[in-house]
Sequence to fold (329 residues):
Amino acid sequence: MSSHALDGKAKASHQELPPEFQDQEESIKITGFWLFIVTDVLIFASLFATYAVLVNRVAAGPTPAQVFQLNTALIETLILLTSSFTIGIAIWAMRQNRQRMVSWWLALTVLLGMAFVSIELVEFAGDVAVGWGWHTSAFLSSFFLLVAAHGTHVTMGIIWAVALLFQLRRRGLTTVTRRKLYTFSLYWHFLDIMWVFIFTVVYLGGRLI
Amino acid sequence: MHGGDEQHETAMEPGFEFIRPRFEAPKFPMHQVWGYVASLVLTFGALWMTVNRIMNPSVLLGVVLAMAVAQAALQLGVFMHVRESRGPAWHLVPLGMAFAIGIGLVGMSVWIMMFKSGVS
Fold:
């Protein structure tokens, strides 16, 4: 099954592939996950477009400069960038067949993800507490929609990663758990890219417009 | 370099070189370390330029957006191993299209709303 090559010419190089790509079925799932990311790019693009169009529609509510605290956004960015690095190291360790190391770096990624979501929730709660909810203005509606869509993705990722930690403990580094770790890392890095754009467009942009 | 790669190269049709798969398995994750450092430099650079308003705000917005695109490319290349694939890396094609459509969606929405129509 795993030695079955797509075409004869490429057979020789398939033997050097990592297990998650050597197995044809698992490698198809990785391609499928890339296609999921493609659809998610389009979802975020439409949310960014909505935000860009509505950012000046503040009605009687606050302006972007009043709402956003760059310090908080910077801490969130640093946490997410670091977690992107830690999951990158986990995948590197996976390729080195170091299961314990994979678990530790994945656990660290989960903790950083939790810290990110907690800070975001505190930020949202603070905004709502002073009366800046999603119903205040079109600007705040689009802001909460965009940033909470990202935060929900991160929350899903945390649940996924915790499940992976258990699977890794029970099953070890199999072809299947490797593929799951690999697709999780794609998901996590993708969320980091989306956050970099949120930080730039929403938080830095809020200071520039 | 060695036999396997050469054979693979010949399997690629001309003009499709960009989807030829690549794999790396270094003994130390140097790429990841540099990718992390570079992303921190880009983040703090963009933040510093914004806080100090080193140029015209609308130009600066373009500059920090370009830095965000650089960071996205960094994540894709360094961390997401975007060229790893069993066969030709066909996922690069829909991914490129999604980014193109996404940029078009945001750019054209902003552009059309700049006209002083009834809504604007």
